[in-house]
Amino acid sequence: MHRITLIGVGPGGSDYVTFRAVKSAQNCEVLIGMKHQIAAIGEITGKVIYEESGIEEILNLIGKNEGKAVGVLITGDAGIYSLSEKIMERFGRDSVTEIVPGISSVMAAFSKVKQQWLNVRIISVHGRPLNGLNDAPNHERVAILCDRKNNSPLVVKTLSQMGILNRSKTVYVCRNITCNNEQIIEVNTIADLNIPDDNDKEVVLIVPRR
């Protein structure tokens, strides 16, 4: 029987990891996560810790540790475009003993630009095609989750071609939210953006112009 705890560890900064997340990680026998996720949790001793980011590799590690209390660290909140659904598809919902919510990058990004995120349309182009952006003009507030390939310059270029930069909207690029190298960039033209580093984590926001 699998005993899996899915632990949301926030957008990146250790200050944004909840006490519940830390406690849950401490209560696990095995901990699986990426290097920066494990670092955000803080010092954990007496655990078997695997640094892993590949989806299939994480699923295999869970499978190999059946019968143990396994904690899987998930960036942001486990309920938004996360690994949680794949884990439950593979091992069944009853295998998940608890989902620990975390602060999502979307929540944090909206707080940084001092905007509400009520009724926001969340679009992910992280490992997904850019045609998901076609729905962006239909919503007042939009958050777009990027990746290395579909990065902010490409997303903003696509939005510009849709005419969004010329409307009564403000576009922000939020990089590495809550981390030491955080950047919040208000975008008026594509020239406002530089190419992000490979390790940058980006959220693009579209909000009503003030």
Key terms:
210 residues, alpha/beta, Cobalt-precorrin-4 Transmethylase, domain 1, Methyltransferase, Cobalt-precorrin-4 Transmethylase, Domain 2, 2 domains, five-stranded mixed β-sheet, elongated
Overall description:
It is elongated and about 55 Å long. Strands 3-2-4-1-5 form a 5-stranded parallel beta sheet, with helices on both faces. A hairpin with a 7-residue loop joins strand 8 and strand 9. It has 210 residues and is α/β, with parallel strands linked by helices. 24% of the residues lie in helices and 25% in strands. The model has no long low-confidence stretch (mean pLDDT 93). It contains 6 helices and 10 strands; from the N terminus they run E-H-E-H-E-H-E-H-E-H-E-E-H-E-E-E. The longest helix is centred in the N-terminal third of the chain and has 10 residues. It has 2 domains: 101 residues, Cobalt-precorrin-4 Transmethylase, domain 1, CATH 3.40.1010; 103 residues, 2-Layer Sandwich (Methyltransferase, Cobalt-precorrin-4 Transmethylase, Domain 2), CATH 3.30.950.
Structural class by secondary-structure content: alpha/beta
Intertermini distance: 54 Å
CATH architectural label of the largest domain: 2-Layer Sandwich
Shape: elongated
Largest sheet: 5 strands, parallel
**Number of H/I helices:** 6
Q: How many separate domains? A: 2
Helix content: 10-25%
Number of strands: 10
Cα-atom Rg, whole angstroms? 18 Å
Order of helices and strands: EHEHEHEHEHEEHEEE
DSSP strand content = 15-25%
**Could you please say which CATH topology of the largest domain applies here?**
Methyltransferase, Cobalt-precorrin-4 Transmethylase, Domain 2
